[in-house]
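Checked the freezer inventory, then went back to the computational side. Two predictions to log before the end of the day. The first one is the construct we discussed on Monday; recording sequence and tokens without edits.
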Amino acid sequence: MIAAGHRQIADFILERERSLVLAMRQRGLPLPAAMSTSTAHNLYFGVGIFVMLVELLRIYAMAH
């Protein structure tokens, strides 16, 4: 599930982030560039795996 959905989530958030950065720059607030697409994919994959591991540990702790 994580491996199948992390790209769509990353693309959605990256699109919103880029539009937010553009809007802030138009208002005179200098912001750094949004991350690259591959960086976003890797970041959200890592976050998804981390959340999954935390939840597995929580389920294991509740069962024992």
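The second is the one RB wanted added to the comparison set:
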Amino acid sequence: MIHIIVYTHELSSLLSHHCTLVDIVVPLLSEVDAVEKLLADAGFGENANPMAAIIIGKMGSVGTKTVLRLGERAVATATRNTKGDSTSAAKDQLNALEDILDDLRGDEVTASSLCEVF
């Protein structure tokens, strides 16, 4: 479900339905099916389901923009690492995605141990 929040600084704008700002609030995705649909709609083909399972399995819940960025990075990394010669591009993309998410988890742990929140 998407919620659209409209607000303005002027009462007259609100009353006349001419609002100055609109925020669209998109909830985090936490179901494999939702992430799979997003990836499939974005053109990830046969890898949409396994990528979705990996992302939700490792992250729990995630924003739509993050899902798309992770998918794009996995494809780019797999392509760069194999130089386009691989006969198993789909598997290479899944391996790249797992590596990216493992690195992300490690980076979060390192950052939290180095930074103190006041």
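For RB: The helical segments are 11-15, 32-41, 48-59, 64-82, 89-114. Residues 27-99 form one domain. Let me know if you want it refolded.
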